């Protein structure tokens, strides 16, 4: 049986290539609205972030997402919070 190809994406924070399922997508829509896209199917300019708390916290301090999307820090604060919430949600074992 033929092996199914695993889609790989590059993390904008660590520059590492990882499977798409191990990443969180951040999207800017055509209207300029920023959001976290857990499904990976929202329209707009997307970028992938590794599910690594230390990496996300470091990026928040260095304003890496603001630089990548060329946006203001006030707009990105809830995005960082949502990414961290999604990482914690996956850390909790499902019953």
Major beta sheet, strand line-up: 4-3-5
**What is the total number of structural domains?**
1
Encode the helix/strand succession as letters: EEEEEHHH
The CATH superfamily label reads YlxR-like
Return the CATH topology.
Hypothetical Cytosolic Protein, Chain: A
Please give the number of β-strands: 5
* Helical content band: 25-40%
Radius of gyration, CA atoms, in whole angstroms: 14 Å
The assigned structural class equals: alpha+beta
Shape: globular
CATH architecture classification? 2-Layer Sandwich
Question: What gap, in angstroms, lies between the N and C termini?
Answer: 33 Å
Biggest beta sheet attributes: 3 strands, antiparallel
Give the averaged pLDDT, no decimals. Answer: 91
Beta-strand share of residues: 15-25%
Topology:
Elements lengths: L7 E3 L6 E3 L3 E6 L5 E4 L7 E6 L2 H10 L1 H6 L3 H19 L4
Antiparallel strand pairs: 1-2, 3-4, 3-5
Helix pairs in contact: 1-3
Question: What descriptive keywords fit this protein?
Answer:
single chain, 95 residues, alpha+beta, Hypothetical Cytosolic Protein, Chain: A, two-stranded antiparallel ribbon, 37% helix, 23% strand
Question: What does this protein structure show overall?
Answer:
With 95 residues, this protein is α+β, with helices and mostly antiparallel strands. It has a single domain (8-91), classed as Hypothetical Cytosolic Protein, Chain: A. It is built from three helices and five strands, in the order βββββααα. The strands form two sheets. The chain has a three-stranded antiparallel beta sheet with strand order 4-3-5, covered by helices on one side. A two-stranded antiparallel sheet has the order 1-2. Strand 1 (8-10) and strand 2 (17-19) form a beta hairpin. The radius of gyration is 14 Å and the shape is globular. It starts with 7 loop residues before the first strand and ends with a helix. The model has no long low-confidence stretch (mean pLDDT 91). It comes from Macrococcus lamae. Residues 9-83 form the YlxR domain. InterPro entries: YlxR, YlxR-like_sf, YlxR_dom.
């Amino acid at each position: 049986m033929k092996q199914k190809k695993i889609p790989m994406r590059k993390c904008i924070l660590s520059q590492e290539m990882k499977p798409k399922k191990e990443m969180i997508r951040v999207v800017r829509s055509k209207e300029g609205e920023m959001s976290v896209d857990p499904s990976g199917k929202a329209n707009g300019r997307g970028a992938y972030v590794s599910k690594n708390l230390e990496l996300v916290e470091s990026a928040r301090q260095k304003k890496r997402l603001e630089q990548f999307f060329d946006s203001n820090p006030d707009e990105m604060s809830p995005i960082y919070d949502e990414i961290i919430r999604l990482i914690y949600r996956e850390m909790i074992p499902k019953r």
